Structure formats: C-alpha cells, structure tokens
Amino acid sequence: xxxxxxxxxxxxxxxxxxxxxxxxxxxxxxxxxxxxxxxxxxxxxxxxxxxxxxxxxxxxxxxxxxxxxxxxxxxxxxxxxxxxxxxxxxxxxxxxxxxxxxxxxxxxxxxxxxxxxxxxxxxxxxxxxxxxxxxxxxxxxxxxxxxxxxxxxxxxxxxxxxxxxxxxxxxxxxxxxxxxxxxxxxxxxxxxxxxxxxxxxxxxxxxxxxxxxxxxxxxxxxxxxxxxxxxxxxxxxxxxxxxxxxxxxxxxxxxxxxxxxxxxxxxxxxxxxxxxxxxxxxxxxxxxxxxxxxxxxxxxxxxxxxxxxxxxxxxx
Length: 316
Known about the structure:
Fe cation 2 binds at residues 111, 164, 194, 197. This is Acyl-ACP desaturase. The protein is mainly α. The protein has a single domain (10-315), classed as Ribonucleotide Reductase, subunit A (Orthogonal Bundle). It is built from eleven helices and no strands. Helix 2 packs antiparallel against helix 4 (98-125) and helix 2 packs antiparallel against helix 6.
C-alpha cells in the first residue's frame, strides 16, 4: 500500500528552503555586474521642457523611437514604477530577516535602477510626452498592487519566476523594436538583470519541488493558469498589450514557447512521480491549459499574418 505524500506547513517549507535562498543569494551576488543608469542616457541631447522653466513643449515629432516600442516603453516603465508595491508584497512573503530579507532588499535595489534609467532616457530623448507619462504614473500607482496569490510563498515565488522571464523578453524585444541603438543597449542591460532575478526564483522553486513536489505542482498549476502581467492594471492595458503583441514584442507565442514551457521543462513538471491525487489533477489541468495556450498562440499568429498581408496588398 502506497502512502500519500504529507503536505508541509508554510513555516516548514520556509525553514527547509532557507539554505537554498542563501545559496542563491551568494550565486546572484557573484554573477551580478555593477552598472550605472546615467551611462545609458544622452544628457547632452536634452532640451528644457515647457512649464516653470519656459522651455519647449513636447511634440510627436520629437520621438525617435518606433510607435510600437513607444507603447511598450510606456507599459514597461509604468510596470517598473510599481516597485513599492512589489517590495511590500515580496517582504510579506519572504519577511525581512536572514537570507530571505537580504534578497528582498537586494532585488528591490536592483529593480529600482530599471525605472531610473528608462525614465531618464525617455525624458532626455523626448521619446514620450512627459506629461502623459507622469499622469499615467500617478493613475497607475494609485491603483496599488497586490500579489495575485496573496502571501502564499510557493505561489508568490512561482509567479515572480515566470514574470521575471516575461519581463526580460519584453524589455529585450522593446529595445530591438525601438530603432535606436542606445535604447536597445539600455533595454538589453535591464533585461540582463531580469534574467538573473528569474534564475533566483526558478532555482528556489526547483528546490521546493524536491522538498514537497505535490505542493509545488499545485502552486505552479495555479499560477500558470491564472497568470497576468503585473502591469495589467495600467489604464488601457488591453489595448496597449494588443499593440505590443501585434508588433511581436510580447505575444502568446513568446509567452508559451519562451516563458512558460522552458521553466516547466526545467522543473520537470510532467516527469514527476509519486504525486498525490490533487497534484495529479492539477498537472492534468496544467497540461490542458498549455495545449489551449499553444492553440491560441497559433490562431493569433495566423490572424496577425492575415492582417499584415491585407495591409501589404492595400499599399501595393
């Protein structure tokens, strides 16, 4: 007779995984490279804006980045702006002591550079109307942020593992689509940070699979099947996300092929044995969801290609 796996309490998992956190913190610190936001901003290109200093008002022709990347840069920056909410959420999950607390503060300090460099670049180069940007920031931050799965440690860390990889890809592709070599270099630098952050959370949950595989599977299934980007509360997010997807910066195919599927393979989710009944059911739900996501991605690609063909035909 087989014995069903015994679930562990949050406290038991927290304590059992702390050595992994310490190990991953040390790995991260050894691999992270110091960099400075000011080195990616062409300050000599800047001009005083209208207002208190009576400069020049922003005009659409001031922007040198592509229209597609302009929307993505706005969404990316507003997402980074919500850092106070992310810090509070992560601290609620990880606490403020020991290796967990150190990571929370280190991660926050590194993430803060992303908002600094992107905003300075956008302002100095006049890539986006600064009035629109500031009003959007005020509106977005007043909505607040809540971790999708509350203070649940496994689900919280799982969510951030996927989210960090998604953000890395979005940042990198935004830079490539910008048409500005400096913007591409800047966004590649930011994306490099996001990749290291993803590795931390991915390895943390990898250790959770060893400590309690059934609980980890259920957490992963819950997160993947309800996943939304942290910027989903931005005003007009749906319209903006469609524009970003149509530009190929971040779409369902990228989400399936380059974010969710690779991490699931890394964890060996579909190869695990000895799961309890609830975990087996959760894994089946996850497999069904992934198949549906793949099909939806293919359908979107086909429709995008059809729209592009019709547009080309009209212009010929």
